[in-house]
Amino acid sequence: MQTILVSGGAGYIGSHTCLRLSEAGFRPVVFDNLSNGHAAFAQWGPLEVGDIRDAARLDEVFSLYKPAAVIHFAALIEVGESVLHPGRFYENNVSGAVSLIEAARRAGVNALVFSSTCATYGDPVQVPMDESHPQAPLNPYGHSKLMVEQILRDLDRYSSFRSVILRYFNAAGCDPEGRIGERHEPETHAIPLAIRAAMGSNHGFKIFGDDYPTADGTAVRDYIHVLDLADAHVLALGHLLAGGGSDVFNLGTGTGTSVRELVAAIQAVAGGGFDAQTAPRRPGDAPALVADNRKARGVLGWSPRYRLNDIIESAWRWHQAESARAKD
């Protein structure tokens, strides 16, 4: 059983990937400072509490577990916060990534799967977007991820360190068995916010902009189930462990859903309507972001299995259970 170090493995996507790693026969070791992660989500292997900027702690964990590879999730992810506190994002996301990569190299580990984002593309020049799309991020969060991508490209060119960069579109949904799910505070993602509104949240739900050049005037996004993302990480890991070269892949369904369509789908699952108010556009929001996922299909043999309704139903069950737990 090969051991894989998963930085940020107690977070949303990281924990679901640990689940899939375990099912594939790997031993995931979670390395997480628990600033955004949850110890209860580390269910499929050891949890080592630490910060990726702490070189000594990283060396200790690499020496103890001797992982075959690293999957790197640990990062600050909120776009709005990155605009307010850009230095914090560069220090954590870029300096932290360098610290982790150098610790891996000191330990003789030369394979890493990196959690990146379609935010590195910025405003779309064509939709769907493939991996050759120009990269011009609109915010410090996207810039911080792009900087790490460049570091990984340089390491591939000038050293033996190989990596697979995975650019996510909109991660959503939860483990259908309800063992782990999406737990952010504050919550900023559309599906959890809409579900909370459907469950009676006093804050309702805001549709930011209804005058985009889309079919119904609202922004269009590509929602991909978190377990489909997790499956792609396992395949990318297998690619590297088999000696495959560095590469980059988009992860999305290839199908766009408008905000109004999303609201209607959640209302159908919830069995009733909820307050959805129109608000002004947010700066930096693109009209449409949809993945061209043909490269991941062809090279990794990956394809998304979950539909939008599966995503919403799994998230609905999770958030209902979360609400019940909060009342106990």
UniProtKB/TrEMBL annotation:
Subunit comment: Homodimer.
Kindly tell me the pathway this chain contributes to: Carbohydrate metabolism; galactose metabolism
**What are the GO MF terms of this UniProt record?**
UDP-glucose 4-epimerase activity
Q: Which family does it belong to?
A: Belongs to the NAD(P)-dependent epimerase/dehydratase family.
Q: What gene does this protein come from?
A: galE
Concerning InterPro entries, the annotation shows: Epimerase_deHydtase (IPR001509), NAD(P)-bd_dom_sf (IPR036291), UDP_G4E (IPR005886)
**Which cofactors must be present for this protein to function?**
NAD(+)
What's the protein here called?
UDP-glucose 4-epimerase
Q: Which organism is it from?
A: Phenylobacterium ferrooxidans
